[in-house]
Q: What sequence folds into this?
């Protein structure tokens, strides 16, 4: 179907899944603010409909699709997919192994169009246009070529933002670039913490919810740290030059200083964003500094300039040579990431507390924004963050909201799933956040449709997917789980009963032992979270494809067991 066509047909929709565990990432949060209410897939072919008139966004999407096809027509394999992602923002074709290698070496940021790419495009355009205009003395002496170059860079970054899909991360980066180029136009310093703070205020005023997203936290933490370090270095260098006088640099020394600056920039940005990477993704890249020192110059001076040249030459049909040269740079970057990723496996770090993250955030802001001795307050704040790393007690077991994904967490670092083939998406989150390894041994003993297990602290858990076995599942259990939507809410013996009606309003469950009590903790609060208000809706009527419009509905699962399918939406 061409872009802009109207879809009419049978589809299966479901709302985005909630967190996979208490305190986890809520997959309903971002779609709610993006205006997305459900995900799904088509059931059969759609009916033929007339395509409507293409609006501006549809025309940009058509252009993006056409450019991606031409890029992949020249570059095949991973290089073509990544080149398309860098130029058009379309990441669907990037192989998973490439993403894993880049993530393990702290190079995943090169795939998503953000401040790094925007700054490279703006900088390359500004240098190229200003250098070109400087070749003509009549123009250079009569016109403000620096401001003309800034306007050309602004035009290029605006088109780049529109082409890449105008997503949240790209929009934040564009606002930052807009402020810096605007400062050039009015003869003000561009790389200042004032501009960083102003950009953050503008973004928060437009979309307050982005403060909770990892892209906002990591991008502004890195930007503030880098701009603060640049300001401190500039002040130190000015004082030194006044005391000793400016010294001429040789070519070798200039190259050495450039490499040192790249290494220090990677180190500063990596240290500033590390707490957010651990808190949001439970990952830290030990070889990120080496990878960024090697790969950043390749992207800065090889890949991205050629990407811009290829995009400019594409209307003339001359993009082949720049794309081929760009592909060589990408292959070299892949080799660096693959080699460094093989040195150390990508092991999860586990959780850290929110209080610890607040301390680290205050430390970064204090060190970046304070110009006096007050900046040394970052030291006690950092120590406080290290002392408060522990996030609290871990659950004895976790139950996903579909009622079928259940796992036990042992004290010796193992995670044992109920199913022989557990959902990979959910299990990976549990393994990462609780820093566990998957255990293939059986922890659940199943008999007569009921599976039973005992946690390391003695919590007795039983599970069944047969609604008729709910009395048996309550027997000799502290927590009984029925993966059906039965009406019963309590067990006769006082055990905790969790059915599909339990995680529907509360999301995935964590089972804890606090002292002598067994506690079940929900992962969402549908009463206070508008992105989870759909969980308060009544159960839908069960429907089959062969149900006729005027026929009596199939018996609802409210009176017996629910056949309602539920599963994760990655």
A:
């Amino acid at each position: 179907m061409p872009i802009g066509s109207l879809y009419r047909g049978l589809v299966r929709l479901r709302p985005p899944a909630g967190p996979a565990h208490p305190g986890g990432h809520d997959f309903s949060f971002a779609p709610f603010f993006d205006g997305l209410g459900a995900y799904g897939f088509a059931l059969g072919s759609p009916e033929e409909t007339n395509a409507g008139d293409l609006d501006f966004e549809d025309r940009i999407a058509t252009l993006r699709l056409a450019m991606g096809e031409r890029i992949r027509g020249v570059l095949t394999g991973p290089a073509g997919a990544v080149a398309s992602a860098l130029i058009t923002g379309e990441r669907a074709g990037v192989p998973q192994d490439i993403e894993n290698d880049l993530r393990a070496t702290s190079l995943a940021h090169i795939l998503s169009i953000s401040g790094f790419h925007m700054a490279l495009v703006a900088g390359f355009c500004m240098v190229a246009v200003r250098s070109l205009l400087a070749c003509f003395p009549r123009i250079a002496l009569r016109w403000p070529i620096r401001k003309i170059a800034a306007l050309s860079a602004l035009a290029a970054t605006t088109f780049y933002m529109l082409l890449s899909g105008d997503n949240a991360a790209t929009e934040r980066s564009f606002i930052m670039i807009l402020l810096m180029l605007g400062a050039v136009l009015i003869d003000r310093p561009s790389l200042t913490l004032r501009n960083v703070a102003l950009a953050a205020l503008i973004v928060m005023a437009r979309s307050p919810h982005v403060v909770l997203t990892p892209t906002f936290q990591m991008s502004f933490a890195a930007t503030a740290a880098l701009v603060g370090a640049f300001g401190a270095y500039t002040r130190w260098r000015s004082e030194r030059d006044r005391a000793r006088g400016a010294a001429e640099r040789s070519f070798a020394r200039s190259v050495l200083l450039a490499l040192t600056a790249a290494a220090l920039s990677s180190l500063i940005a990596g240290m500033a964003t590390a707490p957010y990477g651990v808190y949001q993704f439970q990952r830290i890249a030990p070889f990120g500094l080496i990878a960024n020192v090697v790969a950043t110059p390749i992207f800065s001076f090889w890949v991205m300039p050629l990407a811009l040249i290829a995009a400019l030459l594409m209307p003339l049909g001359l993009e082949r040579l720049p794309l081929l040269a760009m592909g060589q740079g990408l292959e070299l970057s892949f080799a660096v990431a693959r080699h460094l990723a093989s040195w150390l496996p990508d092991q999860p770090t586990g959780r850290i507390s929110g209080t610890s993250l607040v301390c680290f955030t205050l430390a970064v802001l204090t060190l970046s924004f304070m110009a006096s001795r007050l900046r040394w307050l970052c030291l006690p704040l950092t120590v406080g963050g290290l002392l408060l790393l522990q996030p609290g007690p871990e659950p004895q077991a976790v139950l996903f909201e579909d009622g079928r994904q259940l796992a036990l967490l042992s004290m010796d670092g193992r995670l044992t799933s109920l199913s022989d083939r557990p959902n990979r998406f959910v299990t990976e989150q549990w393994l990462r956040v609780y820093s566990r390894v998957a255990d293939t041994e059986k922890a659940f003993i199943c008999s007569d449709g009921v599976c039973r297990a005992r946690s390391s602290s003695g919590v007795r858990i039983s599970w069944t997917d047969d609604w008729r076995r709910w009395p048996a599942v309550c027997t000799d259990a502290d927590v009984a789980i029925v993966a059906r939507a039965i009406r019963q809410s309590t067990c006769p013996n006082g055990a905790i009963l969790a059915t599909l009606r339990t995680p529907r309003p509360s999301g995935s469950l964590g089972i804890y032992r606090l002292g002598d009590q067994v506690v079940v903790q929900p992962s969402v609060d549908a009463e206070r979270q508008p992105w989870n208000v759909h969980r308060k809706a009544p159960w839908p009527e069960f429907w089959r494809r062969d149900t006729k419009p005027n026929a009596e509905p199939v018996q609802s699962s409210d009176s017996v067991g629910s056949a309602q399918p539920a599963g994760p939406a990655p």
